[in-house]
Protein backbone atom coordinates (compact mmCIF):
# COMPACT_ATOMS: atom_id res chain seq x y z
CA UNK A 1 0.00 0.00 0.00
CA UNK A 2 2.93 2.32 0.73
CA UNK A 3 3.86 2.16 -2.94
CA UNK A 4 0.55 3.84 -3.81
CA UNK A 5 1.13 6.84 -1.54
CA UNK A 6 2.87 10.01 -2.74
CA UNK A 7 6.50 10.26 -1.65
CA UNK A 8 5.85 13.50 0.25
CA UNK A 9 3.06 11.85 2.26
CA UNK A 10 5.32 8.91 3.15
CA UNK A 11 7.99 11.35 4.31
CA UNK A 12 5.52 13.23 6.52
CA UNK A 13 4.36 9.94 8.05
CA UNK A 14 7.92 8.77 8.73
CA UNK A 15 8.83 12.07 10.40
CA UNK A 16 6.20 11.30 13.05
CA UNK A 17 7.40 7.74 13.74
CA UNK A 18 9.34 7.19 17.02
CA UNK A 19 13.10 7.11 16.51
CA UNK A 20 13.62 3.46 17.47
CA UNK A 21 10.94 2.34 15.03
CA UNK A 22 12.27 4.75 12.43
CA UNK A 23 15.70 3.10 12.56
CA UNK A 24 14.03 -0.26 11.97
CA UNK A 25 12.21 1.23 8.97
CA UNK A 26 15.57 1.63 7.24
CA UNK A 27 15.49 -2.11 6.60
CA UNK A 28 12.09 -2.07 4.89
CA UNK A 29 13.31 -0.97 1.45
CA UNK A 30 16.05 1.06 -0.23
CA UNK A 31 13.84 4.14 -0.84
CA UNK A 32 13.04 4.33 2.88
CA UNK A 33 16.71 3.83 3.76
CA UNK A 34 17.63 6.73 1.47
CA UNK A 35 14.84 8.95 2.83
CA UNK A 36 15.57 8.33 6.53
CA UNK A 37 19.33 8.80 6.01
CA UNK A 38 18.88 12.05 4.10
CA UNK A 39 20.22 15.11 6.04
CA UNK A 40 17.14 17.15 5.10
CA UNK A 41 14.88 14.43 6.54
CA UNK A 42 16.96 14.30 9.75
CA UNK A 43 16.58 18.07 10.22
CA UNK A 44 12.85 17.88 9.53
CA UNK A 45 12.48 15.07 12.07
CA UNK A 46 14.45 17.11 14.62
CA UNK A 47 12.27 20.20 14.23
CA UNK A 48 9.09 18.11 14.40
CA UNK A 49 10.31 16.33 17.54
CA UNK A 50 11.21 19.62 19.23
CA UNK A 51 7.83 21.13 18.38
CA UNK A 52 5.95 18.02 19.52
CA UNK A 53 7.87 18.01 22.82
CA UNK A 54 6.31 21.38 23.68
CA UNK A 55 2.92 19.68 23.91
CA UNK A 56 3.99 16.29 25.25
CA UNK A 57 7.26 16.70 27.16
CA UNK A 58 9.30 13.74 28.40
CA UNK A 59 11.69 13.65 31.34
CA UNK A 60 14.83 11.51 31.51
CA UNK A 61 16.60 10.50 34.72
CA UNK A 62 20.39 10.23 34.67
CA UNK A 63 21.38 7.53 37.15
CA UNK A 64 24.49 7.02 39.23
CA UNK A 65 26.75 5.25 38.46
CA UNK A 66 27.25 6.47 34.92
CA UNK A 67 28.42 4.00 32.25
CA UNK A 68 31.94 2.70 32.94
CA UNK A 69 33.20 4.81 30.05
CA UNK A 70 32.29 7.88 32.09
CA UNK A 71 33.59 7.63 35.69
CA UNK A 72 32.36 11.17 36.30
CA UNK A 73 30.38 13.82 34.45
CA UNK A 74 33.49 15.98 34.34
CA UNK A 75 37.13 15.07 34.83
CA UNK A 76 40.54 16.09 33.52
CA UNK A 77 40.26 14.18 30.26
CA UNK A 78 36.81 14.76 28.84
CA UNK A 79 33.41 16.26 29.33
CA UNK A 80 30.15 14.35 29.26
CA UNK A 81 27.24 16.52 28.20
CA UNK A 82 23.49 16.18 28.45
CA UNK A 83 22.19 19.11 26.43
CA UNK A 84 18.95 20.77 27.48
CA UNK A 85 18.95 24.15 25.80
CA UNK A 86 17.72 23.10 22.36
CA UNK A 87 15.84 20.07 23.67
CA UNK A 88 18.33 17.92 21.76
CA UNK A 89 19.88 15.28 23.98
CA UNK A 90 23.23 13.85 22.92
CA UNK A 91 25.76 11.70 24.70
CA UNK A 92 29.16 12.63 23.38
CA UNK A 93 32.87 12.94 23.74
CA UNK A 94 34.54 15.76 21.87
CA UNK A 95 38.09 14.85 20.91
CA UNK A 96 38.83 18.57 21.04
CA UNK A 97 37.95 18.62 24.73
CA UNK A 98 40.99 16.48 25.45
CA UNK A 99 43.01 19.64 24.85
CA UNK A 100 42.27 20.92 28.35
CA UNK A 101 44.84 22.97 30.21
CA UNK A 102 46.22 20.65 32.91
CA UNK A 103 46.99 23.66 35.11
CA UNK A 104 43.45 24.98 35.02
CA UNK A 105 39.87 24.02 35.74
CA UNK A 106 36.48 24.73 34.25
CA UNK A 107 33.43 25.43 36.43
CA UNK A 108 30.75 26.35 33.92
CA UNK A 109 30.15 24.40 30.72
CA UNK A 110 27.41 24.06 28.16
CA UNK A 111 26.49 22.50 24.85
CA UNK A 112 23.93 23.82 22.36
CA UNK A 113 22.81 23.94 18.76
CA UNK A 114 23.33 27.24 16.93
CA UNK A 115 20.38 27.28 14.53
CA UNK A 116 21.63 30.42 12.77
CA UNK A 117 24.99 28.90 11.83
CA UNK A 118 23.69 25.30 11.77
CA UNK A 119 26.52 24.45 14.14
CA UNK A 120 26.92 22.53 17.40
CA UNK A 121 28.94 24.39 19.99
CA UNK A 122 30.49 23.90 23.39
CA UNK A 123 31.49 26.64 25.80
CA UNK A 124 33.47 26.60 28.99
CA UNK A 125 34.77 29.17 31.46
CA UNK A 126 38.41 28.30 32.17
CA UNK A 127 40.43 29.33 35.20
CA UNK A 128 44.20 28.86 35.18
CA UNK A 129 46.20 28.32 38.37
CA UNK A 130 49.66 29.90 38.40
CA UNK A 131 52.05 30.01 41.38
CA UNK A 132 49.18 29.11 43.67
CA UNK A 133 46.92 31.91 42.42
CA UNK A 134 43.74 31.57 40.38
CA UNK A 135 44.02 33.89 37.37
CA UNK A 136 41.05 35.72 35.76
CA UNK A 137 38.94 33.42 33.58
CA UNK A 138 38.61 33.12 29.83
CA UNK A 139 35.49 32.10 27.93
CA UNK A 140 36.20 29.45 25.30
CA UNK A 141 33.74 28.44 22.56
CA UNK A 142 34.20 25.32 20.44
CA UNK A 143 32.59 25.03 16.99
CA UNK A 144 32.00 21.57 15.53
CA UNK A 145 31.91 23.08 12.02
CA UNK A 146 35.31 24.74 12.41
CA UNK A 147 36.65 22.01 14.73
CA UNK A 148 38.44 24.65 16.79
CA UNK A 149 38.22 26.76 19.93
CA UNK A 150 37.83 30.54 20.06
CA UNK A 151 38.85 32.36 23.23
CA UNK A 152 37.27 35.54 24.61
CA UNK A 153 38.28 37.79 27.48
CA UNK A 154 35.34 38.46 29.83
CA UNK A 155 34.91 41.73 31.76
CA UNK A 156 36.59 42.17 35.12
CA UNK A 157 33.36 41.68 37.04
CA UNK A 158 33.30 38.03 35.92
CA UNK A 159 36.54 37.20 37.74
CA UNK A 160 35.20 35.63 40.95
CA UNK A 161 35.55 31.88 40.42
CA UNK A 162 33.60 31.13 43.62
CA UNK A 163 30.47 32.56 41.98
CA UNK A 164 30.68 29.93 39.23
CA UNK A 165 31.34 27.14 41.69
CA UNK A 166 28.15 27.99 43.56
CA UNK A 167 25.95 28.40 40.50
CA UNK A 168 27.01 26.62 37.28
CA UNK A 169 23.88 27.74 35.48
CA UNK A 170 23.92 28.68 31.79
CA UNK A 171 21.81 28.53 28.64
CA UNK A 172 22.03 29.65 25.01
CA UNK A 173 19.00 31.26 23.35
CA UNK A 174 18.90 32.74 19.85
CA UNK A 175 22.66 33.19 19.61
CA UNK A 176 23.08 34.68 23.09
CA UNK A 177 24.76 32.79 25.90
CA UNK A 178 23.45 33.54 29.40
CA UNK A 179 25.65 32.73 32.40
CA UNK A 180 24.14 32.99 35.86
CA UNK A 181 26.52 33.18 38.79
CA UNK A 182 25.66 33.41 42.45
CA UNK A 183 25.39 37.20 42.34
CA UNK A 184 25.14 38.23 38.68
CA UNK A 185 23.80 37.37 35.26
CA UNK A 186 25.96 37.88 32.18
CA UNK A 187 24.98 37.68 28.53
CA UNK A 188 27.44 36.99 25.73
CA UNK A 189 26.39 37.73 22.15
CA UNK A 190 28.18 35.03 20.13
CA UNK A 191 27.94 37.02 16.90
CA UNK A 192 28.98 40.44 18.24
CA UNK A 193 31.39 38.84 20.74
CA UNK A 194 30.14 41.25 23.40
CA UNK A 195 29.52 40.71 27.13
CA UNK A 196 26.78 42.52 29.06
CA UNK A 197 26.23 42.51 32.81
CA UNK A 198 22.50 42.16 33.47
CA UNK A 199 21.39 43.18 36.99
CA UNK A 200 18.77 41.00 38.61
CA UNK A 201 15.36 42.60 39.31
CA UNK A 202 15.43 44.97 42.26
CA UNK A 203 14.20 44.01 45.72
CA UNK A 204 14.35 40.27 45.12
CA UNK A 205 15.18 38.16 48.18
CA UNK A 206 16.05 34.79 46.70
CA UNK A 207 16.47 33.05 43.35
CA UNK A 208 14.04 30.16 42.93
CA UNK A 209 15.31 28.78 39.62
CA UNK A 210 18.24 28.34 37.33
CA UNK A 211 18.47 30.46 34.19
CA UNK A 212 16.13 28.78 31.67
CA UNK A 213 14.24 29.38 28.45
CA UNK A 214 10.58 30.36 28.48
CA UNK A 215 8.80 31.10 25.21
CA UNK A 216 12.00 32.18 23.46
CA UNK A 217 13.29 34.37 26.32
CA UNK A 218 15.75 33.88 29.15
CA UNK A 219 13.81 33.54 32.38
CA UNK A 220 14.29 33.12 36.11
CA UNK A 221 12.05 32.76 39.15
CA UNK A 222 12.58 35.21 42.01
CA UNK A 223 11.08 35.49 45.47
CA UNK A 224 10.35 38.91 46.95
CA UNK A 225 8.11 40.31 49.66
CA UNK A 226 5.20 40.22 47.22
CA UNK A 227 5.66 36.51 46.51
CA UNK A 228 7.29 34.17 43.99
CA UNK A 229 7.12 35.09 40.30
CA UNK A 230 8.66 34.27 36.94
CA UNK A 231 10.51 37.09 35.19
CA UNK A 232 11.69 37.14 31.58
CA UNK A 233 14.68 39.00 30.19
CA UNK A 234 13.37 40.83 27.14
CA UNK A 235 16.28 43.10 26.16
CA UNK A 236 19.77 42.68 27.59
CA UNK A 237 20.80 46.13 26.33
CA UNK A 238 18.07 47.92 28.30
CA UNK A 239 18.55 49.11 31.88
CA UNK A 240 15.22 47.71 33.10
CA UNK A 241 15.15 44.59 30.98
CA UNK A 242 13.18 42.27 33.25
CA UNK A 243 9.42 41.79 32.90
CA UNK A 244 7.32 40.13 35.58
CA UNK A 245 5.15 37.55 33.80
CA UNK A 246 3.12 35.73 36.44
CA UNK A 247 3.11 34.63 40.05
CA UNK A 248 3.87 31.09 41.19
CA UNK A 249 1.92 29.62 44.07
CA UNK A 250 4.20 27.89 46.56
CA UNK A 251 4.34 27.59 50.34
CA UNK A 252 6.92 30.10 51.56
CA UNK A 253 8.27 27.56 54.05
CA UNK A 254 9.12 25.07 51.31
CA UNK A 255 12.43 25.35 49.48
CA UNK A 256 11.43 25.15 45.80
CA UNK A 257 13.76 25.33 42.81
CA UNK A 258 12.61 25.19 39.18
CA UNK A 259 15.06 23.82 36.62
CA UNK A 260 13.45 24.10 33.19
CA UNK A 261 10.27 24.86 31.27
CA UNK A 262 9.00 21.68 29.63
CA UNK A 263 6.23 23.14 27.51
CA UNK A 264 2.48 22.56 27.75
CA UNK A 265 2.43 25.06 30.64
CA UNK A 266 4.62 22.89 32.87
CA UNK A 267 7.87 23.53 34.73
CA UNK A 268 10.06 20.83 36.21
CA UNK A 269 11.72 21.35 39.56
CA UNK A 270 12.36 20.03 43.04
CA UNK A 271 11.01 20.99 46.41
CA UNK A 272 12.25 20.29 49.92
CA UNK A 273 9.40 19.84 52.39
CA UNK A 274 9.93 20.04 56.15
CA UNK A 275 13.71 20.25 55.58
CA UNK A 276 13.75 16.50 55.04
CA UNK A 277 11.66 15.18 52.13
CA UNK A 278 12.88 15.98 48.60
CA UNK A 279 10.20 15.69 45.93
CA UNK A 280 10.20 16.19 42.20
CA UNK A 281 7.50 18.60 41.04
CA UNK A 282 5.64 19.49 37.88
CA UNK A 283 4.20 22.99 38.19
CA UNK A 284 1.48 24.01 35.73
CA UNK A 285 1.42 27.81 35.68
CA UNK A 286 -1.78 27.95 33.61
CA UNK A 287 -3.77 25.73 35.98
CA UNK A 288 -1.75 26.86 39.04
CA UNK A 289 -1.36 23.22 40.03
CA UNK A 290 1.66 21.45 41.50
CA UNK A 291 2.11 17.70 41.18
CA UNK A 292 4.51 16.05 43.61
CA UNK A 293 6.24 12.73 43.15
CA UNK A 294 8.99 10.77 44.83
CA UNK A 295 11.85 9.78 42.51
CA UNK A 296 11.65 6.16 41.39
CA UNK A 297 15.36 5.72 42.13
CA UNK A 298 17.58 6.95 44.95
CA UNK A 299 20.63 7.37 42.71
CA UNK A 300 19.41 10.06 40.30
CA UNK A 301 22.15 12.53 39.36
CA UNK A 302 20.00 14.76 37.14
CA UNK A 303 16.61 14.94 35.45
CA UNK A 304 16.46 16.42 31.96
CA UNK A 305 13.97 17.22 29.26
CA UNK A 306 14.41 14.51 26.65
CA UNK A 307 13.66 14.48 22.94
CA UNK A 308 14.63 11.59 20.67
CA UNK A 309 16.16 12.61 17.35
CA UNK A 310 18.11 11.09 14.48
CA UNK A 311 20.94 13.60 14.81
CA UNK A 312 24.38 11.98 14.75
CA UNK A 313 27.53 14.07 14.44
CA UNK A 314 31.07 13.28 13.33
CA UNK A 315 33.35 12.91 16.33
CA UNK A 316 30.50 12.03 18.71
CA UNK A 317 30.37 8.63 20.36
CA UNK A 318 27.01 6.96 20.91
CA UNK A 319 26.47 5.39 24.32
CA UNK A 320 23.90 2.67 24.85
UniProtKB/TrEMBL annotation:
Where would you find the membrane-spanning parts of this chain? none
NCBIfam families given in the database record: F_box_assoc_1
SMART domains with a match to the protein in the record? FBOX (SM00256)
Span of domain F-box = 1-45
Q: What is the superkingdom listed in this entry's lineage?
A: Eukaryota
Q: What is this protein called?
A: F-box domain-containing protein
Which InterPro entries does this one have?
A: F-box-assoc_dom_typ3 (IPR013187), F-box-assoc_interact_dom (IPR017451), F-box-like_dom_sf (IPR036047), F-box_dom (IPR001810), SCF_F-box_component (IPR050796)
Alphabetical list of CDD domains matching this protein: F-box_AtFBW1-like
Amino acid sequence: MAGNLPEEMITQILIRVPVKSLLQCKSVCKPWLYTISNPHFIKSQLHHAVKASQYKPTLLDLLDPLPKLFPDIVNEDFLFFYEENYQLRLQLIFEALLDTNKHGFSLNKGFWYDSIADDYKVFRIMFVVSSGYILPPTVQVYSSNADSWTEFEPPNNMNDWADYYASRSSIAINGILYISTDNNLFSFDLKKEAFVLVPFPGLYQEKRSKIMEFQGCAAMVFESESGVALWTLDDVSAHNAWTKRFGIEVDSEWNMQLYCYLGAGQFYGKILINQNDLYGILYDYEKRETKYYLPGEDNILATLKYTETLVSLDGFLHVE
